[in-house]
Amino acid sequence: MEKLYIIIFVLLIGMVWTGSARAKTTITSDKDNVNQLIVHVDKGKEKIAPEIYGHFAEHLGRCVYEGFWVGETSDIPNVRGIRKDVVDALKKIQVPVLRWPGGCFADDYHWKDGIGPRDERSKKINNWWGSMIDANQFGTHEFMDLCEQLGCEAYIAGNVGSGTVEEMRDWVEYMTSDSGSDMANLRRKNGRDKPWKIPYFGIGNENWGCGGNMTPEYYADIYKRFQTYVRNYSGNEIVKVACGPNGADLHWMDIVMQKAVWQMNAITVHYYVRGSGDWTNKGSATQFGEKEWFALMKNTLGIDDVIAKDIKIMDKYDPNKRVALFVDEWGTWWDSEPGGTALYQQNTMRDAVSAGIFLNVFNSHCDRVKMTNIAQINNVLQAMILTKGKDMIVTPTYHVFEMFKVHQGATLLPTDISCPAYKYDKENVPSMIVSASKNSSGTVHISLCNLDPNNDAKLNCKLEGLKPSKVTGRVLTAETMNAHNTFENPDTIKPTTLKGITIKDNIITVTIPSKSVVVLAVQP
Ligand code: AHR
Hints:
The chain is globular, with a radius of gyration of 23 Å. It has helices spanning 2-13, 84-91, 140-150, 165-176, 182-189, 216-228, 250-260, 290-317, 349-364, 396-404; strands at residues 15-16, 23-28, 34-40, 54-56, 78-79, 82-83, 97-100, 124-126, 132-134, 153-158, 200-203, 239-242, 266-273, 324-332, 369-375, 385-388, 391-394, 411-413, 415-424, 427-430, 432-438, 444-450, 457-464, 470-476, 496-497, 502-504, 507-512, 516-523. The protein has 524 residues and is of the alpha/beta class.
């Protein structure tokens, strides 16, 4: 009896942490470190758009050149100039959509530089990223070939900052028109008869900053003008994407929504995270202690509040949720590796747990968040793939995407979790972040992140509306917080089978190791 009172007391004083009604997280003062999870299998409504697991490739450092493009004459095995090892690895994580060519690069990119015979293409300075010469070997045709090889959708970022309306209009016509127009014929002359499908087109990138340093009022007007000429040809239907705020710049969101809501199908938000430093001293990707680990966990959790606040503003102008929120740049941003190319960083267990938190939070907002694009896919920021000449490795973050791919297209299930706090230096965050979904065959997947780098967590899980017959689990964890894969030891971190899962009286019991990402598969 006494124990029961203690449990009730603990639940009552628990602090509800999360901003999303679909993933309630309550911090308890439970000293036993037991997590209680309820998954409402009987209450799922919304689909998790596969595009929540999207990616981003910019002409930056070695993301596109070397990361994808090596050229047809390269010794590195390639298909029409695109490296095969990278495409093969990425196919395993089911890339649903790829955003290109930037980033800041997009508002300096003139698409006609990147079509026609490769040896005749113009050479331009990449003004944003190290002033390297971009010989435009990778342009529209190569990007669309890459999307076809990956089996993913294309998300093109158009140039508003330094481009013209005519240029943007012609690019869309060039790619999507099946007519006998000059633009469609130019595409045919360059080797592509049938038009491509372009489902997503961004009208500018970070136009509050590198995309033209505009005010929201000015951008909203410019947006409305440019989007008028982004047309649907030959059955292609474009989701027109407006540039939204940097993180929690709610003023930008408010003005752009207010002035241009009827002309957009989606609006973006960008959210980058780091440890305890500032933008001039972001800290090392691999050399850090618990202070920096904790800071990243806390900063990552901030995405939930930012999304909740953005959605509140969107609800004001779009109560029926016609307009989607795209988090089309997110991830960790550390000091570049010494001697590495622009924004090249390593990727540790810390990045993996951060990615798992982000993806769980995105899932829980899937009624409004319909796409996200981690920055960036190869060799830049929180990459899936690192290359060194002909060699290639996958990162811990890649493994998180591979483990979480089971959520793509599944139905989100509401969750309630009570977990102890993860405390560091008088600060608190929840120690466990979760989301769950049910796929078309009835399998329930539960993804859990244990933020605490010191303590394993016992989890009791009840599924409302489902009697579990079999549960399996996969875990990504490591001995140390800064463990990572290298070209010498590429498999230091990779998923393994999670042992010790039991089912008794319909309650699943499992131990979630410290600093880990776990995905459980529950069969009815
Ligand atoms: O992803 C790197 C850069 O970060 C992008 O080019 C820009 O959009 C953002 O500021």
